[in-house]
Amino acid sequence: MARKPLLHYFNGRGRMESIRWLLAAAGEEFDEKFMETAEDLDKLRNDGSLMYQQVPMVEIDGMKLVQTRAILNYVANKHNLYGKDMKERALIDMYTEGVADLYELVLLLPLCPPEQKDAKVDFIKEKIRTRYFPAFEKVLKSHGQDYLVGNRLSKADILLVELLYNVEELDPSAIASFPLLKVCPCVCTLSPSEQALKTRISSLPTVKKFLQPGSQRKPPMDEKNLEKAKKIFKIP
Amino acid sequence: MAGKPKLHYFNGRGRMESIRWLLAAAGVEFEEKFIETREDWDRIRKDGSLMYQQVPMVEIDGMKLVQTRAIINYIANKHNLYGKDMKERALIDMYVEGVADLNEMTIVFPVHPPGVKETKLSEIKDKAKNRYFPAFEKVLKSHGQDYLVGNKLSKADILLVELLYNVEELDPSAIASFPQLQALKTRISNLPTVKKFLQPGSQRKPPTDEKTIEEAKKMFM
């Protein structure tokens, strides 16, 4: 059980990035085996490693786990990032699932046809502004503590902060025109509580390390990488 | 903590049905408050009960829980339907997530326009037969036990059996070539709590029909 977890995915964020964040924040070192071609994916499928023929797949503690949530929950359990009792777990799950819903919208954006992209981005920003950010803001404000649940770091904090970073990247024009600005001058601006949470989590030694160049954190998807991923997964 | 859980949803299966199955299988009595009119919908969204302005919402043990997985996990934890240790939990989650992926297709199926429905039905049949059912059949075969994980009933068994019923409604021969799944379905269906839930008059909801969809669309869109 001493071997490092081995992550099987393509060399990009996709559905594996949350897992990378969580392992990194938990201080668990991991290795990565990147699929570069459709043949690499076929090989994994043919050798029976993938329960549903899909990745992410993580070899960890003698298991070949698939399904993002199963992997995240296992890592959270293992590293005490899942609260102290049933009720805390419920809150953590409730917050994590909201994060996941928004994350899903952002995740699929690169696959959106160019002519629909602006509308999609507007839709996402609307949801951020009216649904998700108010919800998380309310939680943080309600107890005024440093973490979302139980005054203690959990997967909810780490995954929310990952999302906050992703959301800030969402307005490419803003970032292009104002590269030195930390936030875009639009609805993606973080509230004080969220900014505080983001800063706090980002300052944790493990997370700080992960945020530095040279870590296993993956960059946003670019055209070249998108084409490669489409070939691997046979997306038209 | 003595009050019964209260389920807030439309009078139909949707995303609440898995929660009904789990509560029923666990032997937990529950109440339901149905959202029937536009006013009901506006009211529940305005009173701050819904963290993300969405249902399902379940009032349980002093909490107003939303998000299907959060609710399911809480019930599973509370009623020892989540394995005995971290690794069993991981397997249970892995199986439940596969079930959820296929179940999602059956949940949204009624909403598709007629032309699209045929394509979607083929997709469901194909995925069930070639991806998901073989995977679960393999698990059951590998250990030959009565339940998917740890020789003990878990949320994985209950939710898989719900899925089998759902897929069979769309494709009656869906599990014809999966003997282990057939046996699991029979076994789980014979548990006293599940047997009761499967009988007429229970809180199990019927398949969603065209008329219900049309009415819902009028109300909420």
TrEMBL record, chain A:
Keyword Transferase attached: yes
Keywords: Transferase
Cited PROSITE patterns: GST_CTER, GST_NTER
Enzyme Commission number(s) of this protein: 2.5.1.18
Catalytic activity: RX + glutathione = an S-substituted glutathione + a halide anion + H(+)
Official protein name in the record: Glutathione S-transferase
Domain of life per record: Eukaryota
Domain called GST C-terminal: residue spans: 85-221
Enzyme class: transferase
Transmembrane segments: none
Similarity comment: family membership: Belongs to the GST superfamily. Alpha family.
Biological processes annotated in GO: glutathione metabolic process; xenobiotic metabolic process
Ranges where the GST N-terminal domain occurs: 3-83
TrEMBL record, chain B:
Top enzyme class: transferase
GO cellular component entries: cytosol; extracellular exosome
EC number, as in UniProt: 2.5.1.18
GO molecular function: glutathione transferase activity
UniProtKB keywords: Transferase
Domain of life: Eukaryota
Cell membrane as UniProt keyword: no
Residues annotated as transmembrane: none
Domain GST C-terminal intervals: 85-208
PANTHER family with a match to the protein in the record: GLUTATHIONE S-TRANSFERASE (PTHR11571), GLUTATHIONE S-TRANSFERASE A1 (PTHR11571:SF107)
Similarity comment: family membership: Belongs to the GST superfamily. Alpha family.
Protein name as it appears in the record: glutathione transferase
Organism: Oryctolagus cuniculus (Rabbit)
Gene: GSTA5
